[in-house]
Design a protein that fits this description.
mainly alpha; elongated
Amino acid sequence: MAAIRGGTMSFEALRRELGVGTGNCKAKRCRTKIEDRIQGHKDSLKEGNEPEACNDTHC
């Protein structure tokens, strides 16, 4: 979620940045879940419900 909050807004960008979807199943199980999270974040930004920035390194 930190990468999404940081502005990485597509599955392919997350793949390049974090390596998501590169496991044995090649994103067959995780892609829709990750895309749903990205869309949920985009929707919250449109509604003005952006979460506060986190200064903790574990966010």
